[in-house]
Design brief:
- This protein starts with 5 loop residues before the first strand and ends with a helix.
- It is α/β, with parallel strands linked by helices.
- The protein has 12 helices and 7 strands.
- It has 2 domains: about 200 residues, NADH:ubiquinone oxidoreductase-like, 20kDa subunit (Rossmann fold, 3-Layer(aba) Sandwich); about 70 residues, Cytochrome-c3 hydrogenase, C-terminal domain (Cytochrome-c3 Hydrogenase, Chain A, domain 2, Irregular).
- Helix 1 packs across helix 8.
- It is globular and about 80 Å long.
- One iron/sulfur cluster binds next to helix 11.
């Protein structure tokens, strides 16, 4: 039996469309895999509205959004790219609108609220929609914020699901593709939803620090430090924020396993974190706070002494521990 169709509405607010571009580069699974039902249990997904890649335009394009707002496009997952501006700060104008009604622009936040009320799940794609991201950086003239701030941290979809944040500037295409596929499988009862951290990020992706996943971490432990870009050692002195950022990109790579910031000589700028791009992640080349490095060194000394003690004990007692 064909599974029930699940529609996707992709709404863009204050965004640069980088998350769309990144999503189009996902390969495991790709957008085509998702739309063609790469596994039978995840078949029947349709992308009904995406302003950048859909064919219709103008009023014709908005029909799917309007149907979803009226509750006539059931069930649908709402994917949000971009931050939500505060229209109260726009004076007589507006910051961001999608379409109009009787000549009146319909603001992004109005659309977002109506759609969120009807969606079975809301997924924030990228740091702007998760936490405000670049538009939210100081002095934040438009009052930009993430969807979770806008709807409320305790907000739940009509299916009882909290907002799922998949941050990244841009979002990692495969993070998003995986989370969308995972959400569909969960909605159909094949899986449970991914466990989320306090910032509603899936823990299996964002549960470890960049430093934990960095191919240069061994060199860091060995005291080998880069003093200029292009050197193959730890880039802590060049401003790397890996110790205070959460993401698996250096281990996973960015596209087809290639790339991933610190893996290819770029410092981590903490793009998946709620405070990004402000302190302690900005300015990007400023060194991360020393506390992490001091604490890690102390842990390293304790672990080293423990390893030596175990070997000594082995010899002394003559048994393997
Ligand atoms: S500080 Fe940055 S470059 Fe150095 S090991 Fe940690 S994540 Fe890698
Ligand atoms: S390694 Fe750092 S800068 Fe790169 S994607 Fe992850 S959090 Fe963002």
């Amino acid at each position: 039996m064909e599974p029930e169709k699940i529609h996707v509405i992709w709404l863009s607010g204050q965004a640069c469309t980088g998350c769309t571009v990144s999503f189009l580069n996902a390969t495991h699974p790709s957008l085509v895999d998702i739309l063609t039902g790469f596994i039978p249990q995840a078949a029947g997904i349709t992308l009904d509205y995406h302003q950048t890649i859909m064919l219709p335009w103008g009023e014709e394009a908005l029909k799917a959004v309007e149907a979803a707002e009226r509750g006539e496009l059931e069930p649908f997952v709402l994917v949000v790219e971009g931050a939500v501006p505060d229209e109260d700060k726009a004076g007589e104008g507006y910051w961001c609108a999608i379409g109009e009604e009787n000549g009146r622009p319909i603001t992004f936040s109005e659309r977002l609220k109506k759609l969120a009320d009807k969606a079975i799940a809301v997924v924030a794609a990228g740091t702007c929609s998760s936490f405000g991201g670049i538009p939210h950086g100081k002095p934040n003239p438009t009052g930009a914020r993430g969807v979770m701030d806008f709807l409320g941290r305790d907000w739940r979809s009509k299916a009882g699901i909290p907002i799922i944040n998949v941050p990244g500037c841009p979002v990692h295409g495969e993070h998003l593709a995986e989370v969308l596929a995972h959400a569909v499988l969960a909605l159909r009862g094949y899986l449970s939803l991914p466990e989320l951290d306090e910032w509603h990020r899936p823990k299996y992706i964002f549960g470890q620090t960049v430093h934990d996943n960095c191919p240069r971490a061994g060199l860091y432990s060995d005291g080998k430090t880069s003093h200029a870009f292009g050197e193959p050692y730890c880039m802590g002195l060049l401003g790397c924020k890996g110790p205070i950022s959460h993401c698996d990109a250096p281990k996973r790579g960015f596209i087809e396993g290639v790339g991933g910031c610190t893996a290819i000589g770029g410092i981590c700028i903490g793009c998946t974190e709620p405070e990004f791009p402000d302190e302690p992640y900005g300015p990007f080349l400023k060194k991360a706070p020393a506390t992490f490095f001091i604490a890690e060194k102390i842990r390293g000394i304790i672990a080293g002494l423990d390893a030596v003690w175990h070997r000594f004990e082995e010899k002394l007692v003559g048994r393997k521990l």
